[in-house]
Fold each of these.
Amino acid sequence: MSDQAADDVSTFQDIIRTLQNYWSEQGCVIMQPLDMEVGAGTFHPATFLRAIGPEPWRTAYVQPSRRPSDGRYGDNPNRLQHYFQFQVLIKPSPDDFQNLYLGSLEQMGFDTLVHDVRFVEDNWEAPTLGAWGLGWEVWLNGMEVSQFTYFQQVGGVECNPVSGEITYGIERLAMYIQGVDSIYDLIWTRGPQGIVTYGDIYHQNEVEQSSYNFELADSAELFHWFDVCEQQGQNLIDKKLPLPAYEQVIKASHTFNLLDARHAISVTERQRFILRVRTLSRGVARAYLESRKALGFPLLAPEARS
Amino acid sequence: MNTADCLIELGTEELPPRSLKTLSQSFAELTRRALEDCGLTPSSVQVFATPRRLAMLLRDVPTRQSDRLVEKRGPALAVAFDAEGKPSKAALGFAKSCGVSFDALTQKATDKGSWLYFEKSEAGLGLRQILPGVVSTALTRLPIPKRMRWGTRSDEFVRPVKWLLMMIGSEPVDAEILGVRGGAVSYGHRFHAPGEISITRATDYESLLRTKGWVVADFDLRKSIIRGLVEENADKLGGIVQIEEPLLDEVTALVEYPVAVCGAFDEEFLDIPQEALVMTMQDNQKYFAVFDQAGKLMPHFIAIANIDSRHPEVVVAGNERVIRPRFSDAGFFYRQDQKQPLAKLLPRLDAVVFQEQLGSLGDKTRRITGLAIYIASRLGADEDQVGRAAELCKCDLMTGMVGEFPKLQGVMGRYYARHDHEPEQVSNAIEQHYWPRFAGDELPQSDVAQCLALADRLDSLIGIFAIGEKPSGVKDPFALRRSALAVVRILIEKSLPLDLGDLCARARQGLAHKIDASSVETEVIDYIFGRLRTYYQEQKINFDIVDAVVVDKPPELRDCDRKIQALNQFQSNTAALALAAANKRIVNILKKQKLDPSAAVNPSRFELAAEKQLFEQLNTLRARVEPMFDEGQYLQGLNELAGLRPAVDQFFDEVMVMVDDESLKNNRLALLQQLFRCFRQVADFSRIQSK
């Protein structure tokens, strides 16, 4: 696949650098993380919004992600409420997309004649985003290390052309490469004073945030905040401002996740909340498509624009 | 006729493993049938399927359709010529429309008249021309639950298509399907042989892929190789593997070149209920679990990799790494859950919604408890144990373990109840109240478990019907079909002396403070009776037999079953059909009359010997069979009643029922009514179809 010698990926930040360099070479726009609380890299506007409409797009970035319910007070070596995803989106999905992905594994030193790499059916659906796609989870010797999806619909809008999305679980890969059994033992980097671990940087955060997520988050205020986000989001859609409207979707979605972690939403109500966020997402998606159209789809090649 | 072997292979990105077999078989069958419709039937079809290809080898396909004679009828001879014997306008017009001169037309006489005809031999098309269309149509008709698009293309398939191989004999067929051009090139294993593999002859495909491509293309062959690998490795470990077909199929659909990987895990994990470990290995990892001779899980697993690794130890270590955190998680939850008794979780069920209108799981538990204790009282089961088991039966839903492994509901309840020193019957009932979980599954063993299983199902059936969510078509979100069938199976196969109507009424009463279910009670009973058709279909008993008994809705399903079984066996009695016909006749006669259902027969009004004889025989037999019927010995009773046949035949031969004399007529009708009723104690014989 790749002619280049594999990189040194012995630290967490080496992996990120390797992936960024690799996808940069594939012509991706290297974005910075979204500065908001999101559940996954898909929420970044560089994925959710850019997947909509005819304009070609290639991007890659790290996205810190939050899943409040997954907090374990720093006690569980495999679960975090705050973790990192490395996200790649290419539109239209290229013919050699799977091979490009395999190239990134080789770049990290995984010889595909040594490791058992497989694409195992796993279809993706994000009910709050009105989005779904078909694809696989990628197994490395039986361990899921990435998600691979061909988007079919985003925000209720049919994807045309189709975007291909890859999401790497950076912690999983790093644990595998470094051979450690606890996320907290991961070497983040080697500094002048010695090794800095993932735990050095994030353990306290996991402990404190778990307390907040499970015990202290103010449910009444969160319910109120959810309503506010929904209302503002709708207003902004009506004012044809899809970008700020989308930020309200993100806020509503995270608020919902916090409420969920507090077990404040019953099973039946849950569906209704999801539906409310989805309604907003759909509105945003339509408004975004309209706004890009009004701009003449500027990222389209000139001959394709007409 | 020239024939050739024909090879078709569609290369794709990895296909969904659970539908791979169906996809490949449908593809081959649709193609074969379409060729057959064109008159190009292959002598045989071999199907190939791997994660990255759907393929087939069609043997001895005719390479050309035979020529066809095309006939077109023109004007009748009578109007084909004018007065001077020259071709008429109509005749010339016809010739023109056929594109020939009048002289090229023929004449044909049939017994209906004579006409001008145009005849032409049309050359058949070659397989080469026909094949692309056939293949492309077959692909659009595959049973694909979710189709997808990719890149900028607008057509859809299961997964993106990479290449197309289409050959007749040793010649490629030029065609473009789903964006790829047909050729004589295939590709091997993704990593072992990623390059092109030229296929020289269609029939060489399988062996070339095997030798050059590192691909075992035949699904069943691959499956048997994997089975062998798994058994061989289990043997080496001194253990046994119970290979479940669905898992084996899935694993087969995930590899092109199977290699076994044996892994181990720490023995300390064996303290965790083995059901959880097995589930993690099978469902999440697609591993085969290994058991010792006594059926106890061993700390080993067998995985099937898709690579002959240069460093197999890396693959083993990797797979071992994956299950460690999963097992640790399970162990953590298991220990946490055991820190408090199951019963302590009971109050928390009040916070979980079962269904908005039907209340919380706590509400449901209380209803199950009430109903189960009532059933226990009817059956003479231990009411204390039933009550205790009912209270605890949903508590494990609040445990971490069931949160993590939802399929272990009930199983974990049993473990935790045993840990809490609950009686054995109670612990087992918690698990078994979910039985039967699928078609053909075991039934709850003890009467305690049966009480619970029935109470839980009946409460759901009545409740969900009452909120208007009864199953319709394929929609059955609460799996009520399965629930109803479970009720049927438990009542019949455990031969429980329970009145279905009474049970449903009790269930309705239990729900009364949530919802008024009185209007759906009958509907639920009918629904449960409706399941009987399916139930008996599996025993190869026809609908009419079932309907003939079910029409009277016998209160006890076990009684209903005895009647159906008896009636079914009675069909082999030579008198059965005649008696069914007689009953049908009686029903038709009585239908038009307004006869008092309790009308008595007056023997002094008999005028004919045939009436008298039938009456006397009926009375004698009735006295004999009624005790049999009371005992549920229906077949014996029916065989006795079969003796009535000559008398019945004679009656219909000799006696005119619809006479003018009203009282004479009514007396005869009353006799027939009694006869019908006698049979009706078992079934409505008039509903039995003559074969």
Amino acid sequence: MSEETILLEVRHLRKDYGNGAVLKDVSLKLEKGEVLVLIGPSGCGKSTFLRCINGLEPIQSGEILLDGLSITDGTAKWSEVRQKIGMVFQSYELFPHMTVLDNILLGPTKVQKRNRKEAEADACQLLERVGLLDKKDVYPRQLSGGQKQRVAIVRALIMKPEIMLFDEVTAALDPEMVREVLDVMMELAAGGSTMMIVTHEMQFARAAADRVIFLDGGEIVETGTPDAFFDSPKTDRAQRFLNTFTFEKK
Amino acid sequence: MQDLGIRVLFMGNNFIRLLGGLWITLKISLLAVALSVVLGTLLGVVMTIKHPVIKAITKFYLEFIRIMPQLVLLFLVYFGLTKSFGINLSGQVSAVIVFTLWGTAEMGDLVRGALISIPAHQYESGAALGLTKGQIFLYIVIPQTLRRLIPLAINLTTRMIKTTSLIVMIGVVEVLKVAQQIIEANRYTVPDAALWIYGTIFFLYFLACWPISLLASWLEKRWKN
């Protein structure tokens, strides 16, 4: 891993919550174009970890560097950092009082001060990629969950971030709609996007990831390539976790 | 036909006087409403601040206004201020003060309720896009707050208009007082004037409040997203 291509580096991150540590000592490096998948049991801190990276959660100690510059030492402005780190949430929170197009254009026009016509052309192109161009003037309540989530992805993508974070984005969707969202994410991954994905979709993780990181109890227990991790996990905890997804025929 | 009470409406300038009384009612209530909306919105935002002293003061204010009957408040301001501090306010000014105090408290509570009903995720989604706190408020929170607020705010407005009938008690000659005067003056000539006069007033209040309700329905439909 060469120094120039490391986009994100996390050093000894520690986050406490109430009376315990949610993240104990997490360090990792994310390369440009890499797709990192974080998996682990509920409560292991993976969502919290993503939220720390874009400043939605404060950290107690440790450092996060984006493009070699620290974003946690108080010198960086989050509104600028967040333009480089896009995030899509589980509850797809589109703004209900705005049309799909307005939802997407809010960021580029108000934060990046881009020309509206130019941003609109961009938006339409992205909407077409995810198959929702015909919905651009529709309000969120008229969309299905899967459609809302795809719009949420476009809304994050149009900011042209360097890294995309996905926080269990399919967890709240009906099964039929999960696939359409995962397809979009696969396409992004194949296209060279730098992504960090938290998910429970193991098949997807296996197909999309360049590297898998297994978190448990707030620390990284194991990392590896998808094939190595899923076929022969090195640690017991990882094995036990993977077993929860397989069933023996009765 | 000559015993028909309705003729009292056409006698002399009775109807004009009733309209004049309605004008006073509307002037006071709409002024109070306008002030309450502005001050109430400010109060509502202040009420969401998590500071113990601020919370205590605003809560006390809200509860005090809610417990006190409006009539008592009117007496306190109109008679009480004169007796204790020598401040001589006219009935109309006292009415505007009292109704503004009441309207601000209620409006503040409505605004606070609407603000806290916006889910935290909305703030986070805005922040994740790089919006500043001010931008999040302006483009995401306030538009949604207004949409949740308007029906209840309209309801408050019509309630304030109707409650102005109390200001008769501090000597303001508004529409109900005019009605009483007409009925008293014509007690022997038109005995069932009361029915027609009060009927007319009912109609006048309806005329005053109905357009506001229509406005609310129209707004709700427009914002039905």
Amino acid sequence: MPDSAKTEAPTQIDGLLDRLRAQVDERNNSGQYPADLIERLDEHFKRMVYHRVERDADALSNQLESLNQSGHFSRARISVESGKPGVSQVHRVVNKTVARQTDGVLQQMQQFADDVRSVLASLVQAVHDGSTHVHTDLLTRIDSVIERLDSYERKPLNNEAGLSDLRRRVEQLEKAEQDRQFRPWFTNDSFENAFRGSPEELRDRYRDLAELFRKAPEGPIVDMGCGRGEFMELISTIGRENWGIEIDPALAEIARDNKLQVKVGDGVEILRKCEDNSLAGISLIQVIEHLTQQQQLDLVEAAFQKLKAGGMLVIETVNPRSLHVFANAFYVDPTHTRPVHPEYLAFLQREAGFSNVETHWRNAPPEEYRLEPAGDADERRNVDRLNALLYSAADYATVATK
Amino acid sequence: MNFHQIVVTAAPGDAITNQAFEIDALMSGVSNSGIFALNIHPDVADRVQPLHALRHSNDANMANDLILFHVSIGSPTVTNFVLQRPERLMISYHNISPAEPFLGFDPAFAGLLASGRTELASLVTRCEFAITESHYNAKELIDLGFSDVRVVPLIIDLSALKSVEPSEGTLNHFRQVVTGPVLLFVGQLLPHKRPDLLLEAYYALSTSILPEANLVMVGAPRLPLYRDYLQDFIYELNMKNAGIFGAATDAELVALFNVADAFVTLSEHEGYCVPLVEAMGFDLPIVARDCGAVGETLGGAGVLLPPEPDPLLAAEAMAEVLTNDALRQELITRGRARHNEINPDLARAQTLDAILEVAAP
């Protein structure tokens, strides 16, 4: 042991093993571990290993043993008895007369048999134990192959020209992943203030959506992506229990300062941890356009699972059918991935199992934006069609009921 | 004087090859020095020559030359070659894994290891001096009849590894996909390193104590069949957060040392244990079993479990090291101190000293 370890005044390591042993005993006694856990794990691993490794040399050992039990060659074991009168006497005389020759032959046979037994014993031993019959040349070659394989495994990509392409692609993927991660130095709060409006403005804008939850059954309403909590406050004003989910801890903190209950983390993951059929409502206000396509699928599926019968899923987002949106709101937010088409969203909800899906058009652009009708009836009709394409409602909300 | 080193296999990243390079650098200043090997990886072919390049000559001075033979595995070809050389002989013993644990998995490899021990014994009369990195190894040599044995620390210089940029891919994976603390094992996935025991301990840990803990096993799977058994064991016990990383590049290894929260090994045979030194160098608290040279490598840094296999105790120790901050801090501090003691320059001086002592006429 080095001096430094000796001279230190140990605090945590002293008696550690005894403490750990006591904890093991406690877990064993409290039934936290199944009885014979380690024995069973050992057995499990051995079963897997022996299942594949065939080692059946025991039968050979048994045969060798019975061979060793058989007696020696001997003239005494040659029968001289006969059922015919006088023949036994003849056998005895012959036996005695050629005794010298018979014994000579038997001795040679015995010697041979002993040698064969000894060789067999060595062979059976060799079959039992692979390490006793080392084939030097073969081993050297195996050794060399293993070492080479090992070297290649240590540097799997180095010598294969084709794999350098793979490495380049991995680098591209890593780069793409880095780009995808958007790390702004401004706060989400200041972004919301600049582009979405003050808390007061937001409350006015979404009061009608909150009112929809009056029809929801008993139980909590969850606002996913709740931000500073304006929508939750509206839900509270209609007297409904609620809590929110927000991925940005700073925004969640603002909501908590207003006495709102917020869980911080990934929305779908947190939703999945809720009990099935337990929620009265779920809302996503300007959130779904931030999700990937897979996350959108996962969200609708999880929402259906967690809502109780009659529970409502309200999703509000930008309306891609209004081209005005693309010149204004949508591209202001750099974290928007792509807009969600109202027909696709309604389709998703119906496919997930929601019985009733309604679409509400919201926030029509100001009247003064619209092209003014002029000219003859045909021209006016064209202007109307153009206005419909350019200046439809900027947002829409789907209200799906389970 | 000529000074030759002989290794069975020279490969990049191999600990013994690295040792030979270190010694070669030391000796090139004082003698004509070279490295020879039976198997040579293309990446080191410019620094290592094939065995047959070391020729016999009638020069009487050859008897004054010195061969340093690095012994770590059986290789009848190389041992016979060494025994027939006229030069003086010293060995550097890096231990030979025991054959028995391999019998059930790879009898041929077991035979190779068993033959390695016989070959080592055959060197006793020819070898003038033996160096080795642990007292544990030294005892084996003395028991075999080697008379002049000295323990010389291994030259472990982490500065090269520490200057490697960690793999961005590996870091990304652990930062974005993996949650919960990470236990790291580094070592060849071979039976005597007891990865099976480690998995049992991890099973107890993740089912009863710390479900969010992860286990990452890093090492070349020298026996692919054995690796398959371990993989199946992981699948069958549904250990979702345990994984076999396999062989790692330096960049991946550095990334893993960076993201890990503790290093753990339940190996029951180590002639030294370089990964322990690396773990201490990367400030990881350690849990290990007191087997082979593990205790002397750690030198009091790390939770040293008794040699008897006890996965439940190991699970408890892993949990403690991951959750008890005071213990973690103490282990990290001790590890740093121990790592600083394993000073590469001191090891270089002692190695050079030992070789020159033999080389001096």
